[in-house]
From TrEMBL:
The keyword 4Fe-4S does not apply. It is found in: Cell inner membrane. It comes from the Bacteria. Belongs to the ABC transporter superfamily. Its main location: membrane. Keywords: ATP-binding, Nucleotide-binding, Transport. It is a peripheral membrane protein. InterPro entries: AAA+_ATPase, ABC_transp_ATP-bind, ABC_transporter-like_ATP-bd, ABC_transporter-like_CS, Oligopep_ABC_C, P-loop_NTPase. NCBIfam families: oligo_HPY. It holds the Pfam family oligo_HPY. It comes from Mesorhizobium newzealandense. This is ABC transporter ATP-binding protein. GO terms for molecular function: ATP binding. Residues 5-258 form the ABC transporter domain.
Amino acid sequence: MSALLNVQDLRVRFRTMGSLKALTTGTADPFIDAVCGVSFEIRKGETLALVGESGSGKSTIARTIIGLQPAVSGGIRFDGEELIGLKAAERKSYLRRMTMMFQDPVGSLSPRLTVQSLLIEPSRIHGVSTRDRGAEAERLLRMVGLPADFGRRYPHQLSGGQARRVGVARALALNPDLIIADEPTAGLDVSVQGEVLNLLARLQDELGIAILIITHNLNVVRHMADRMAIMYLGRIVEIGSTQDIFDQPRHPYTQALISANPVPDPDAVLNRIEIKGEVPSMLRRPSGCEFHTRCQYAQDICSRVFPRDADSSDDPAHSFKCHFPLKRISADKMEDRP
Ligand SMILES: Nc1ncnc2c1ncn2[C@@H]1O[C@H](COP(=O)(O)OP(=O)(O)OP(=O)(O)O)[C@@H](O)[C@H]1O
């Protein structure tokens, strides 16, 4: 399958609040590098999850892909076309083909517009004519399993799950090739979370849409994603197929995240690995491997030398940045693993 989206060595930098003071006193770096050389691709119809703790740079990557945030350097190719450097008007035709579902389902919908107007808005913004607005809104509502009369409601009259469905319907308005879903289940009850994820999975199957899911919820990842990328301090520290990473995490950070994730199986043996300490500030990045300050396996070299990307000998698509990756266990020995 060919790549629909190819992100290469992407870097995004923010000026910090204290930057003026820092510039005059020379006390600290006035910038933070929120995204540091991130590369990944998403193939047509595939789901990739970007996973990581709060502040690891996930949303910044999404906002940069859709042009809300400039990149310092790197590339974002969509269907073979480099988007960075394109003029806004040229970029617009590509942006039609990727839509973003924002984190806050009700807050991201304008409170003064009816659901029908909200569903027609993307077509209006992109100059796509819709002869019968009512019929178009009904079509989109039907796709997400909501009755036609929801078109007359306002966002505050929707439950959390209904607002998410409207968000999905709105994302579908322009027949996108890629949906970027930022925490698609945040704030929803577990049963409603399942409904929203099933809806996304069904639409993906039917329409062949690729999805970039941004989340810190590993159950969402396990349920939805073909591949996953784990982020720490603005870098991808491990990327590979979801199944492989859950079965055989190679980076100690991934291992700890997975071990801390509540598993639905009551018989599962929980060997929870605590990650010590706090996430370091992006203003004061640790030297060498940036995870070494919290890593239970860290050795001397880890604090001195930045680890290069390594990959699994039997799967080059599974790569990780670690001097001492966890050992791969052969399939027949997996059952004996503690
Ligand atoms: N507009 C901004 N100005 C300055 N710093 C910012 C801005 N937006 C994000 N940051 C910083 O960039 C870093 C990455 O933030 P980002 O929101 O991308 O992380 P995230 O992984 O999506 O977190 P969350 O899961 O909480 O949304 C954080 O340190 C954040 O404080």
